[in-house]
Design a protein that fits this description.
It contains 14 helices and no strands. It is mainly α.
């Protein structure tokens, strides 16, 4: 069941990326992020009816509060990178999230992968970097090599990568002290309370948020997938190691992004992309075949 949940979670995140990409074509990124947080708050609030509402508040509070702050910070920084209009240049930095997650989960959760799984993670990173290598022209390489500290967007996406690697680890730690539904509710509630901080110093962000949205199929898919991706990931974390889940999300996500890109966005598929996908599939296979399942007591 654990590996199926992890694969399903990876599939949902891939589909979610496609829907978000379509959504920001006609709406602002800020509006889409707000709708995602709002949808999570609504659905997790509804599911509190069937939750037992158990929580060790003393153990949960500090970790949960840090998690809320990190989520809002990563959203804000990701917005700044999106605003630059050059997100594709920095996407490869996100390929390292499985490695960062492996370090965090070892330090915080004492989760240890087997050697072959680290090889699988390396395959996924190499495949991803190969896939996105065309994004790095000579000017970008020069900027990365010599002006790293002055390149704010590169620094922002590195911070986002570090945060996104840490948040599922903290999610799993929080699930030791409360259930999935209450944890999801508290996190979405906290993010809703902190979300206005993004708007404080920018009238442009305020006016952007107030713009009229397109209420079409994509809008409703954002609402549903915004909740399902978070919920299924929390469920999967109770069965598999964090680094395993993050590797599957990254690996399967890249493969499916090419499939969706070809059929939905009519993007070109060439030999380099196919070669990259084969490398990634090998990495995913290494991770799946040696997945260990955790025995975290499930509290709903």
């Amino acid at each position: 069941m654990g590996i199926l949940l992890a694969i399903f979670s990876a599939f949902l995140w891939s589909l979610f990326d496609v829907v978000r990409k379509k959504a920001v074509e006609n709406n602002s990124a800020l509006q889409v992020i707000f709708i995602i947080i709002l949808s999570q708050f609504f659905f997790f609030s509804c599911f509190l009816v069937i939750s037992n509402l158990q929580i060790n508040l003393r153990a949960y509070f500090l970790i949960g509060a840090c998690l809320v702050i990190l989520n809002v910070l990563s959203l804000y920084l990701f917005l700044l990178v999106l605003k630059s209009g050059k997100i594709s240049i920095y996407i490869p930095m996100l390929s390292f999230t499985p490695f960062f997650s492996a370090i965090y989960s070892k330090l915080i959760l004492n989760e240890e992968l087997v050697f072959i799984q680290y090889i699988g993670m390396l395959f996924i990173v190499v495949g991803s970097l190969t896939l996105h290598s065309s994004q790095f022209n000579s000017q970008t390489k020069l900027s990365i090599n010599y002006n790293y500290l002055n390149n704010k967007n590169l620094l922002y996406i590195l911070i986002v990568s570090l945060i996104w690697s840490l948040t599922p680890v903290l999610d799993k730690e929080c699930l030791k002290y409360t259930g999935v539904y209450l944890h999801g509710f508290l996190q979405s509630c906290g993010m809703l309370l902190l979300f206005p901080l993004i708007l404080l110093n920018s009238n442009k962000y305020k006016s952007t948020l107030m713009k009229k949205m397109d209420y079409d199929l994509i809008f409703f898919l954002i609402i549903i997938l915004g909740f399902l991706t978070a919920f299924i990931q929390l469920m999967a974390l109770q069965y598999v190691f964090v680094a395993e889940l993050e590797s599957l999300k990254r690996g399967i996500g890249i493969v499916l992004s090419l499939v969706f890109g070809y059929f939905i966005f009519k993007e070109e598929v060439n030999l380099k992309k196919i070669f990259s996908v084969l490398i990634i599939i090998c990495g995913v296979n290494f991770i799946i075949n040696f997945t260990k399942f955790t025995n975290l007591q499930i509290i709903m």
